[in-house]
Specification:
Radius of gyration: 23 Å
Shape: globular
Helix content: 25-40%
CATH superfamily of the domain at 2-87 and 174-241: Beta-grasp domain
Largest sheet: 5 strands, mixed
Distance between the termini: 49 Å
Number of helices: 17
Strand content: 15-25%
CATH architecture of the domain at 2-87 and 174-241: Roll
Length: about 475
Amino acid sequence: MTSNILKFIYKNKILEIKNPDTNETILNYVRTKLKKTGTKEGCAEGGCGACSVVIGELEENNIKYKAINSCISFLPSLEGKQLILVEDLINNGELHPVQKAMVNYHGSQCGFCTPGFVMSLFAMYKNYSSYKEEVIKDSIQGNLCRCTGYRPIVEAAKSLNKDKKRDFFAKDKKNTLKLLKKIKNRSIKIIDNNKKYFAPKFVNELNKILRSEPNSKLISGGTDVSLIVTKELKDLNSLIYLNSIDELNYIKENNKFIEVGASTPLIKFESFIKKYFPDFSEVLKRYGSVQIRNVCTIAGNIATASPIGDTLPLLLALDSQIIVKGQNKTQILPINGFFTNYRKTKLKKGQFIHSIRIPFLKQNIFKAYKISKRIDDDISSVCASFNIEINKDKIKKIKIAYGGMSNTPKRAFNCEKVLVNSNLSYKTISKAKKLLEKDFKPITDTRATQKYRMEVAKNLLEKCFLEVKQKKNIRING
């Protein structure tokens, strides 16, 4: 069934909006239409967390609660979900346990960022049974506070371990599940004021839409594309939302590779990949924030083709493949060569990324590093990845890739060439470091100078081989 009426759950009721503005953000809607002003706008780019709200999604007869950045999420993406705002946590005049903890532990001063912190902690409260420091810090990594400091907020979160863990959302879960089931499995098609928005439920629907609307922007989390509206103040006249297609939300594996569907949230992949490539998972923990990773995807990171997209050098070093579909054809393209220029790929109009395949390399050593000005919620200055096969202290095969060193994420072919069939010696590594200057001509920008980037790239190469030789990780900050 296709509809132009958006339906979502708010305060135990199904809200309906006919032909909503497809470029309106959830933040703008809740502040100007619902008149709920607890949710704030700080950065309008998903970087500060003041706008955090929580959505509830139906997952296998359960409700998964996710904190998201409402400032970069378009209103139609609420279709089939539950919306929870900071005002909604109060029940019959009583504060929610998370709100009480923030009050009792003095977790607020100016208060501007507080609603966002509360919502991130609320999502944590609903998704975990205990709250260790690592869980707490991960949960609030996308929330910036400039006056209170994080210690009282972390202490407030720790105090929730003493709580009985049953709030009124848990008591009302049966009714919420009933309402979510009532509005699931609907495709959305909105055409109003020269703007078009499509949210198909199935891949065959997507193919039909792409044939008739080949110039549409495809979005998953929309964490990059949405900035065209919020920062450049331009309209997106035709959007196709992919995260409503359950067929594309999967992770499967066989003896040869891991396959990740195009609408699989990055946070789900982050948890899965840890057992195979721990360094991949560690880099993903620093990819944006929980709010970002709850909605964004690897496919989206590939399609936007940013030279500082954190998954891209890792996928390049792992020799991944991209399954591209459209126009009644399926292509399997190597990621090496997929990026043709700055934010340009081999993807053609009418095509979409269906999935990504990452080969199993059980005998190989995989290393990845991200360097940025701060640990959490920051863009890379340099991201490096190394995929090495070693036999008797000799490098048999090696693939090296960097982000932030060129106008596209890129392999270091000259560096690789000198290392193949070489021993793990300081002389070899010194020669390879020098050849990075042949592989890359980095730029100077606000994040880092050309000289700094090159020096960091060389140091990461050396760090990788020191760790391989010593068989232990060398900790660095940044």
